[in-house]
Amino acid sequence: MNLELLAPEISLAATAVAVILLDLLIQRKGLLAVASVIGLVVSAAFTIVMYGEPSRTIFNNTLAVDNFALFFKLLFLGIAALVILASVDYASKLERFRGEYHALVLLSALGMMLMATAAELITIYVALELASISLYVLAGFLKDPKSSESSLKYLLLGATASAVLLYGMALVFGTTGTTQLGEIGQQVQSLGVQGIIDNPALILGIVLLIAGFGFKIAAVPFQMWVPDVYEGAPTPITAYLSVASKAAGFAVIVRIFSTAFGLPSWLSLDWGIVFAVLAAIGMTVGNISALPQTNIKRMFGYSSIAQAGYLMVGLAAMGVASAGETIGQSTILFFLLSYAVANMGAFIAIIAITDKIDSDLIQDFSGIAKRSPLLALALTVCLVSLIGMPPAAGFMAKFYIFGGAAQNGLLWLVIIAVLNSVISAFYYLRVVKVMWLGEPSSAEKVPSSGALRVALTLTSLGVLGLFIFADPLIKAAESAAKMLGS
Q1: C-beta of residue 65 within 8 angstroms of C-beta of residue 57
Q2: CA distance 166 to 177
Q3: Which residues lie below 8 Å from residue 155, measured CB to CB, with a gap of 6+?
């Protein structure tokens, strides 16, 4: 059965169970975070050992173990570790439920890892629900009115999106007679142009798949849940949602549309144009909506919608590219890595600041640089990266993804994306201005735990390191993209 190929997932599941049991036995709840991070490191070690080996499938081709999946597994494990480290400062708000909190973070990461590995529709859906249900609970973990509202809204809209997604999968299965992505691709190719035109159920199935996954990645017009959920959820979970959930959604979209609907080329071109239009609308709506926001978590919510638009530029390039090209896939992988590091770093700094000032309002960040210059500097570096300015990872990520789109005849989309990047600078730099030029309300320092400082240091160095050492990481992304489905 080749269970050793599932060693990362098995070890992570065992860690989640161990954390719950450990919570019953120990008084020092801080050890739960240590145990969780150790479990994540062990899972990452298993993943690294398998990296670079030939692609393999297990469990009747339902799971694919390739560099593409392993890339995302390492990304999810890293994000989960940063969330747990950043949550140490949040411990007082978690009260008696720290064991459940850490276990749910681990289980959601497990679901996302399975999503990246899944090569069959039913497996994809089960993995997605494992990740989603954990996140629904985590969003309402504070148990206050805002948190409860965000959890309920996320649950109801997420359930609707899951139903739409499942209906789309059913239509694809009914048309092709299989749930295996590779076999779906073969059936779609065998239909020919007229065969696909004569099968509106297949076309509707593809549209519903885009809609269902559009909710998961916060793409317009399926983004209505984002601002309220981001504002009400615990800040570490808001960070988790903005990065890990989005990355998992893109991992599945890339695998499905590359493997199942990558050929014939005219079909690929059609869905590529759909993603291009959604990208242009998403970038514009997200950035314009972020401009008037006064709450930093809501601002990042709308920013996340815009970032999904930038990422869909890569999906559009993937669709319109010639058969065999992987520029779209590789640009998405590198952009997700850069975005994850920068966005997590920004949220980690925000956690430290808001925990001290007890406010999410941007105006209350006034003069933070005078109270904690290193914290303000780290947040500034991450915000500069999210804009896409040098010397930060975001610049290389946008240069790479926009360049790939331009090479494939999407110059109009690149122009819209660049203009939107300029718009984003207004609200990101407004936070920088308030921190560095505003007058502090107090001279008291902003404290933070050692775990949070470690997480913030890692993300800040990552933002700068991805700019300096972009070339080998881009080649690693290209290698992972080339092995997709091979």
Answers
A1: yes
A2: 15
A3: 136
SS3 364: helix
Contacts of 401 (CB under 8 A, 6+ apart): 310, 311, 313, 314, 317, 331, 332, 334, 335
What's the alpha-carbon Rg for the chain, to the nearest Å? 21
Count Cβ atoms within 10 A of the Cβ of residue 2 and give its class: 0-12 exposed, 13-18 middle, 19 or more buried. exposed
DSSP 82-151: HHHHHGGGGHHHHGGGHHHHHHHHHHHHHHHHHHHHB-BHHHHHHHHHHHHHHHHHHHTTT-SHHHHHHH
pLDDT at 335 over 70: yes
The whole-angstrom separation of Cα 465 and Cα 459 is 9
Tokens of 34: 């240590």
**What is residue 450's predicted lDDT score, i.e. its pLDDT?**
82
- Tell me what the pLDDT averaged over the chain comes to: 89
Whether the upstream peptide bond of residue 54 has omega within 30° of 0, thus cis, is: no
The whole-angstrom separation of Cα 213 and Cα 424 is: 25
Bridge partners of residue 361, in order along the sequence: 295
Q: Which of 26-40, 112-126, 363-377 has the highest mean pLDDT?
A: 112-126
In this structure, is the dihedral angle defined by the CA atoms of residues 169, 174, 176 and 178, taken in order, positive or negative?
A: positive
pLDDT at 276: 94
pLDDT at 23: 86
0.90 surpassed by pTM? yes
**CB neighbour list of residue 464: distance below 8 Å, 6 or more residues apart:** 381, 391, 392, 393
Could you tell me the sign of the dihedral formed by the alpha carbons of 121, 124, 128, 130, in that order?
positive
Residue 380 identity: T
CA dist 380 and 431 (Å) reads 8
Amino acid at 206: I
Among 61-75, 145-159, 339-353, the least confident range: 145-159
pLDDT > 80? residue 95: no
Domain spans in the chain, listed from the N-terminal domain onward = 262-486
Distance CA 70, CA 90 (A): 30
CA–CA distance, 469 with 421 (Å, rounded to integer): 23
Q: Output the CA torsion sign for 314, 316, 321, 324.
A: positive
Q: Is the confidence at residue 89, as pLDDT, over 80?
A: no
For residues 441-471, one letter each, b for 16 or more C-beta atoms within 10 angstroms of the residue's C-beta and e for the rest, the string is eeeeebebbebbbebbebbbebbeebbeebe
Instruction: Give the chain's length.
Output: 486
Cis peptide before 221 (omega within 30 of 0): yes
